[in-house]
Amino acid sequence: MQKDSSRQEGLSRKWEDIRRSWYKFSRNPLSIMGLVVICIIMFLAIFAPFVSPYPESASKFINFYEASQPPSSTYLCGTDVFGRDILTRIFFGCRFSLMMGATVLALIVPVGVALGLIAGYYRGSWLDTVIMRITDIFIALPPLILALAVCSVLTPGIFHAMLAISVAWWPWYTRMVYGIASSLKGEFFVQAAEVTGASRTHILFREILSNCVAPIFTKMSLDMGWVILIGASLSFVGLGAQPPTADLGSMVADGSKYLPDQWWISVFPAFAIMLIVLGFNLLGDGVRDALGAERG
Amino acid sequence: MNFMPNPLLEIKDLHVWFKVFEGILKVLDGVNFTVQPGEKVGLVGEMGCGKTTTMKAIMRLLPMPPAIIPKGEILFKGKDILKMGQVKLRQIRKKEISMIFQDPTAALNPVFTVGTQLQDAVRFAEKSGKNTEKEDIRTRAIQVLKEVSLPDPERVLQNYPIQLSGGMRQRVCISMALVSTNELLIADEPGTSLDVTIKDQILRLLKELGEKRDTSIILISHALGAVRGMTDRLYVMYAGSMVEVAKTKDLFAHPLHPYSQGLLAATPRLTGGGIGEGIDGRIPEYINPPKGCRFHPRCKDAMPVCKDKKPPFFKVDENHEVACFLFQNCR
Amino acid sequence: MRTIKFIAKRLAYSVFVLIGLSILIFIIARVMPGHPARMALGARAPEWAVERLREEMHLNEPLYAQYYYWIKDALHGDFGMSLVTRRSVAHDIKEFFPASLELALYAGIFMGIVGITLGAISGWYANTWVDNLVRMLSYIGIVTPSFVFAIFFVLLFGYVLEIFPTIGKLTPGVVPPPLITRITTLDALITGHFTAFFDALKHLLLPAISLAMGPLSQEARITRASLVDNVQKDYVASERSCGIPEQTIMFKYLLKPSLIPTVSIYGLDFASLLGNAFLIELIFNWPGLSRYGMNAMLQKDLNAMTAVILVFGLVFIIVNIIVDLAVGYLDPRIRLGAERTQ
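Output (structure tokens, whole complex):
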């Protein structure tokens, strides 16, 4: 009986917290703008096959009669050299970018955070040393370079690009969580939990992790933008999604050959990339302010 | 409300508002406050009642975009500080009024040595900052550090704030305030963030300095004990305005305002009696402060008039005034 | 003395990290599918030649043995042969590294100075139109990929306005200065070849600025944020109450603490500089190590790729050490955190 009612209380308190965070978030018009932009992009990405004007343009498609058309009322962003509608390809490109971002984060956040928690909690032991030294090695390289290296040894493709970015990006989560976990380790509530015999998993995942949630969440919101940016850079050099898949980075690269005459082939995808990253940046800033997270 | 003619500092009906996202915080609601030359005045009140805001307003240290001063005057030696130009204002800050901040760690710039900050304070305290010799500045800095009983002042000059203990930092802050001859010293909760024994030392130091230099002192505290031995007169503040003022002895002996009574009753006594009762309720939100007397929601003696009109000061005695309608018959 | 100990400790640790990095890169490089020996000799080469090359490259031996051979040579400065340029990788590095260094230096200095200045102006005039303009521009700078900037600048200054050149380091026809440091601008200055100097400068401008735009905006943003934060701190009020003039407060007492977060970030920003150099050098056809490395990666030139990555790793490590020293210099709390006089 008692357990039920206290759980009820816990849940309703969490709901309070969420509502309060939302209130703080919504105070800032820029954050709302970021949220709106991201929602629109997500909608376009998810429903791309249904909302895009010329869904065939997303894959193998050639229409030489309409090739290289400037933006007009039929083709809002013009067509490329194969006659494919650029707006459609942008929608599908967003789809890939968002998928890439989500997948990469889904891979690295659990792994990175878990490693950070373990290393931080067992600070000073061999486990800590091993994990953090490995992290240091991965961090010693600028992420784009590491991603390029990994990507180049594998066959070019979107999944390998995701793998490459994951390899380059995971250490940052470990480092951030390590900082928090190791500083919390000496705190009283952790010692209290230990003394009352709570299991290690409980301490790690309930006590310590709940203190990390805000910074992790903030970092994830901001990272979506950066991961997508790195992905676009990879595709720009041809290491990401392969033709004929619509990918924003490779679209910019392909279109750069035809500058400045057929400017629309590069410019619109470039704007799309900027818009996505901007949206996530604004969103991430808003999340940081709303959750009052420490700088990670 | 003058006790004597020619007060050193006179705050008249000061209102200070802060513009925030949710609306306007009407923090100070008509503050009246006087300090005579050479007098030691205490200011007590709960945390959040506006003490620091008032003091910062005196020195015009409030950040003016969020802060608005819609009404009121702050007269220092007869001239309104709020209307002064930058030059005159700096003059006042340099030579006439000094402030010691609440948290000495926050009040010292962490990336510069004590010496740099102190010597700059010395340098700019003189009329034309450039003509003073480096040696003279250093000598003066060391002298002022000695005045606050800091051992080994040469070493302290080279140290960064982080290398000093809390008590030493507080003394450094006091020394910075003493750099030029001042007529008014504002001490905002000195020693609050420190050990009780250190706090006691700091308070004694202030008392000595006050007596030696015949400076007026405004001592702010939320602890009554600190104020008791050091002040001639005491103001009690609640939620943005003064509610009672009297000679310190009188206030402790006969607190009149319900809030002052509650405050004094709440202080635990060493002589027994255990922990006193607190006052029910909390300080009001400044966004939507209660109409009339701001204390009425918590007051057990509240009358209908208290909800409507704000009580002015009623003179109960020669030096004792209360802002409470319970005493409206004394005038 | 403390500084020297700090540097020594960090350098020693860096050696360890570099070794770890070399292992990592080695594993990555050797993991790839494909036959390096075959690819080096081409599809037409006879089997025995391929087998012979495979022997030479120790490709038939276990991974750790291969690593051993590799590191033995590497410690002697021999990074093997590039399968693409057919020269020793060490030689290639000597040739191409200075160009990348030059680009990175100019970009790094530009982003530091301009970024901090813009951020400071934005912070001092907070909430005025100047501030809002700079903030908006820095948002744009942050979200725009460097290759987009590059393409944009090429379009604008190369084609539309035709002021700046868009390819290479020097215009053909301009006499290059003698190769001393191989940093063209430096060599030109030292030897007094002023035509070459200005020409090289013109060529440097667009790539360096494209590289610097993103990190510059980050620096501006962080500087502004920390200025605005610090202006509210008690020590500023305390300094004002002592009569210290506004000028002194702004330029001395506010600036130094506000620079601390900016300088801390500088390392990361420099990292994105190094990473994006790979793309920028491709676009501008800049004969630097990143372009060389990029080609090595795309053509699966293992030796070259490994060596290039290690070089960049080393550069980044050194930059981080410098950044840490700078932060320690600026912030005594970090330097002296352990000592307290009572």
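The domain at 9-96+181-330 of chain B is CATH 3.40.50.300 (Rossmann fold).
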